[in-house]
User: What shape does this take?
Amino acid sequence: MAVKVSIDMVSMLRSALLQGAGAKYRRLAEALGQAIDRGTIAAGCKLPPHRLLADQLGVTIGTISRSYAELERLGQVVARVGDGTYVRQDGLQRQRDSGFRNVGDEAPALFDMSRNTHIPGQEVHFIAQALHALAQDPRGLQAISGYSAEAGQERHRVAGARWLTQEGLEADPGQVICVNGAQHGLHIALLALLKAGDTLATEHLTYPGLISTARMLGIKLLGLPMDEQGLLPEALDQACRQHPVAALYCTPTLQNPTTAVQSPARRAAVAEVCRRHNLLILEDETHAVLMDRRPAPLAHFAAERTLLISGLSKAVASGLRVGFVHAPAPLVGRLAAALRATCWMATPLPLELTAMWIENGIAERLRQQQIAEIGRRKALVAGVLEALEWRSPQGSPHFWIKVPEPWRASEIEEQLKRQHYLVATAEAFAVGQAAVPQFIRASVCNTTADDRRLLEGFAALAAALGQERGVPRW
Assistant: This one.
């Protein structure tokens, strides 16, 4: 929708430029902020696009961008990636604009099927064992009690390489950077390799954590069309011909939220497009570790340009906040510098516990237990979903469920919330202004061990969707 610049707004801002003092962007920000406070610019109003307002006022686009950024810093406006800047209004912000919700943020009465969290298992027992063993090892304690190299201690990088190694990829410890979880790895990758104003291509529906960190760093996201295998290589190629794309963020295995899994041929095609247009690839395999016998990663097809980002939060223990990034050798130093700028080094204690588990097989044991529990829970609730259209490959911790016409996903979400159940809609994952498909993501990973409650939640979801029986799964 085109946004017109009102004559009154232009006159007000021109006066601010002529009469005020200080940098132009500050004068404009102060004038707009005062107008917002007075109600002259109404709550919920979409501010003019940067270029349009810059042309009207005879200033640079950068001046407008800094003005809007100042207003956002002060909490007066909300910037939506690919959608524009809006005057803040209660209820206006979409879920992705309000940041992450942590476990425990919601009222206890709500049964949460909206998040993929680690299902508690034996990790507490193994943490106690590992801490006890470490307490008996003064030299080991001494080794993790001081500063480490930015990329991590050699032993921890070796363990990370072992965790990342899979069919088609023999990870090199010298190319591993230890991070405080996969989200931290993604953040330092963007911080090190892209700059404000750069364009990052991704799937039209993508990980909300990417949307949040890109917005904070001023990186533009470009959502690309998808099919049942995820990202379309031809759509990426066309986007690169039309936009100055710097990199691709992609989840080729168990894509979040659609659960898509790219075939080896699709991965090769995506890698070839990236090579042709000289794109970096940020490959997220946070959920992929839950799939046994998964296809070779994109890092196999384009090793010279792919950063593989992984963590243990979904498969082993979420609270440890341990992750690893495997990067092309020439980029390791830049990533280590970005890590130093954020936290100086990844925390050695959880890395030491994780390294112990990877070495003695406990990490793999916990991963297999997590896969088995996800499978058990999915088998438990699949019967109540048999009349619905859904996708959920082996290892996926959630179902991706189509909402039948004439219903909209937001209506089903609100209805279930009134019944004290939470689900996620495609809207929370959307990039840009393209039409959002009417789907719901429902996870089996609520931390409760109460199978009855889990069944009740999925039964309520099936009842809300109200489908007739006999519709096949995809």
Summary: The domain at 123-361 is CATH 3.40.640.10 (Aspartate Aminotransferase; domain 2). The chain is about 40% helix and 15% strand. Confidence is low (pLDDT under 50) at residues 94-98, 467-474. The two ends are 35 Å apart (CA to CA).
